[in-house]
Write a structure and sequence with these properties.
This protein is α+β, with helices and mostly antiparallel strands and 266 residues long. The chain has helices at 7-15, 33-42, 51-69, 155-167, 178-186, 188-204, 225-236, and strands at 76-80, 87-93, 103-109, 121-124.
Length: 266
């Protein structure tokens, strides 16, 4: 959010959660991106009554969380909405386990008073037959992993939990889909067939048009050989190591360690 807002639009702007318009300070005193993000999240809220300041601080917290999420999460991608930073779009590519091969979309909704307000809500947009996922709403029962959301908890931990429940299904989970839980415990073959069906359906919906008008919504397009083959080849082809070349002029005589031992060329 840049520039000076006029009074007429001030109240309207305070209600809207926009994309990240503030940048992190360039001078981090040598701190890594990860440590800087943690410091920003753990920073105590300043005692100011300005609502505008609160919005700025909240966006810093959200941006810091997003930076942490980009550290080392494989097979799962998230990005905050361009229109509302409290909503994150996500896609999970399941690489192992009974749901292997599935591509599942989900949204993460942060509380209005984030980083306070409890655990963010995870809602799957792609139907999944799973004991921890409510069949009608698609909401994930996060209380199995986070019975209480603490200030020390991070969104990347919640994202890891999404990968975890799709990689390994535990019979002891606090089920919100009792049919799935019952089949998992008493008739695994039927449960597996139901899972395979939802995996297949997820693949059929990969190229569907976006359900929301947001430039940050994650979309996919079919593979086109004329377009993608050259890019694929460039990615897979190992890069040739360049021979180390001396930079600048050397004033050291070969075989000597004495500075300026090499006579000036005439």
């Amino acid at each position: 959010m840049s520039g000076i807002k006029n009074d007429a639009n001030k109240n309207d702007n305070l209600k809207r959660q926009g994309s990240f318009r503030k940048l992190l300070p360039l001078n981090t005193n040598g701190d890594s991106q990860l440590s800087m993000s943690v410091k920003m999240i753990d920073r105590p809220i300043a005692s100011q009554t300005s609502k505008e300041y609160t919005v700025y601080l909240q966006e810093y917290n959200i941006l810091s969380e997003y930076m942490l999420c980009s550290q080392d999460l494989k097979g799962i991608y998230v990005i905050p909405s361009a229109q509302n930073s409290l909503i994150w779009f996500g896609v999970q590519f399941v690489r192992q386990g009974i749901y292997q091969g599935g591509i599942f979309r989900f949204n993460i909704t942060l509380p209005q008073n984030f980083p306070d307000g409890g655990c963010p809500k995870v809602t799957f947009q792609t139907p999944i037959f799973h004991p921890l996922i409510e069949p009608e709403s698609g909401e994930l029962n996060t209380s199995w992993e986070f019975p209480e959301w603490r200030k020390s908890n991070r969104i990347w931990q919640l994202i890891q939990f999404i990968t975890k429940i799709l990689t390994k299904v535990d019979i002891k989970m606090n089920s919100v889909n009792h049919e799935a839980s019952n089949l998992l415990e008493n008739n695994f073959e039927i449960f597996r067939d139901r899972v395979k069906k939802c995996v297949s359906e997820s693949l059929n919906k990969v190229y569907n048009a976006p359900t929301v008008d947001d430039p940050h919504y994650i979309t996919f397009s079919p593979y086109v050989e004329e377009i993608h083959n050259s890019i694929k080849k460039e990615i897979l082809q190992p890069k040739e190591e360049e021979e180390s070349k001396a930079l600048g002029l050397s004033w050291v005589q070969p075989g000597s360690l004495q500075p300026f031992s090499k006579p000036d060329a005439r």
